[in-house]
Design goal:
single chain, Helix Hairpins, two-stranded antiparallel ribbon, about 5% strand, globular
Amino acid sequence: MAIGLRDRKESVTRSDNVNSFFAGRHGRVSAERIRYSPSMDTPPVSSIVPGTPPASEPLRDSFQQLCDVIARLRSPTGCPWDRVQTLATIKPFTLEETYELLEAIDSNDNDAICEELGDVLLQVVLDAQIAADEGRFTIIDVIARLTRKMVERHPHVFGDAQANTPEEVKQNWERIKAQEKEKRHRTSILDGIPIDLPALARAARLSKKAARVGYDFPHRNMLFDKLNEEVRELTDELFPGQPVEIIPAGVEGDPVPDEPIDDPERFKRVEAEIGDVLFVIANLARRWNVNPEEALRNSNAKFVRRFRAIEAAVQAAGKTLDEVSLLEMEEYYQAAKKRE
């Protein structure tokens, strides 16, 4: 399995040399050896100068070392797990590492952010090595294409275009992306939005793309009427032919078991209506410049924080969760809310 250099130090000692294979479009094209160095344990913190790139030699050496290690793991005498991976099988790990990076950023922990950025970089280099082993492209192709794209999409920096505000930069960016889309023969302005994006994030991106060509409510407040419409359609599916019993939210009373939807066709209709409600919510968030995915992540974190406060309070009382009532748990929850 591909793991970090610090995790591999037990198998790479000061006396060890590690064979490294460089993969080209048609298989291995050369072999080198890398030697253990103390930097494999804990890399020193480099000097930071805002707005300037890192020194070329340390950057080149450290990135080369990473590529060497990944190539070695994928070599015939490397790691059995890494050797059998494909771009498809590695997808879940790429997604997982991305979410772990987001969590680290939320924690504002520099060590965690640095480590998780490394794990994301690992996925990039490993994906590129897998592609190289299959004769598709190399990490050099990846970097070259990315560099060219960044230069081409910033003509106000690397060319003669003018862009003095972030909004003007976005306009230039979208214009250039549209030109690139034409070259790729895309048939819809919605092409290019990854289908594997989290659903709320993709909903916001889809509605934003449609809005750029005028397909949007003229006034954002109209979305509340649309939301009410979708909620009515949902309740019509949940309670066909009968009025909805509105029960005030509270924690008193005996629990009422939820009745499952046994009819598969009705279940699909309910699922579709819930999806429509969520789509409107994502669209509404977009009109107020709120990232719905980030908003929901924050609410998740808030719930976790407050529920852990419930657990702590119950434990402090010498009880277990099974021994306290819903009313008591709600009191602990509200107390935690007030403390924030």
